[in-house]
Design brief:
Layout lengths: L4 H11 L3 H10 L4 H19 L6 E9 L4 E9 L2 H4 L2 H17 L11 H17 L4 H19 L14 H12 L4 E9 L7
Antiparallel strand pairs: 1-2, 2-3
Helix pairs in contact: 1-2, 1-3, 2-3, 3-8, 5-8, 6-7
Length: 201
């Protein structure tokens, strides 16, 4: 199929990829626009993964207050240069991360941060529940692992479903921004406060 300039322009305006990359993607997809978009996104995410080991020590602290001051969020998002830290795209991402934290109340950034005793406690609850529900003993372990994964997806920011698009996780959102911006981006730490919540000792 012939790849026209119009097709390249349209793909470029959607994805922000270079002319040559758009042409190659359309050729690889045999002119199929949707497949070409997927191809570019996958390529971008692969490039983003390569950037993940680069040092990110610049960035910003985003503050967000929700519901007339009922929920407050502070999140540190890092990038590699102050040039990117001042860019609109990076600031927008930091704001989106703060909104996600306000709405979805994660407790950790990644699953690696969950203490083993917390995981063990969740495993125990899931096991007791499965047995109480009368599940066959030979599938209890699978059920426990499934429920543990669901728990991690709920409490880990990077594994949560992105509040504006349930087809992607926060991790994928960050990776897409890494691909678009061209620098490593790291969510370093966050704190979420809710009015009237008990402060743990």
């Amino acid at each position: 199929m012939e790849i026209t300039t119009e097709m390249i322009k349209e793909l470029r305006s959607t994805t922000g990829a270079g002319v040559l990359d758009c042409r190659k993607a359309l050729e690889a997809a045999d002119g199929d626009y949707k497949k070409a978009v997927d191809h570019l996104r996958e390529k971008g995410l692969a490039k983003a993964a390569k950037r993940s080991d680069r040092d990110a020590s610049d960035g910003m602290v985003e503050l967000y207050s929700h519901g007339n001051g009922r929920v407050g969020v502070m999140v540190e998002v890092n990038c590699e240069t102050d040039f990117v830290a001042r860019s609109e795209a990076f600031r927008k991402l930091a704001h989106e991360i703060a909104l996600q934290i306000a709405a979805a109340a994660p407790q950790y950034i990644t699953a690696d941060e969950i203490p083993e005793e917390v995981l063990e406690h969740e495993r125990e609850i899931a096991r007791k529940r499965a047995l109480e529900e009368g599940k066959p003993a030979n599938i209890v372990d699978r059920i426990v692992e499934g429920r543990l994964k669901k728990f991690k997806d709920e409490v880990c920011l990077m594994q949560q479903t992105y509040i504006r698009d349930d087809s992607m996780t926060v991790e994928k959102l960050v990776m897409q921004n890494v691909a678009a911006i061209g620098e490593n981006i790291v969510i370093r730490r966050f704190q979420r406060w809710e009015l009237g919540e008990r402060i743990s000792e």
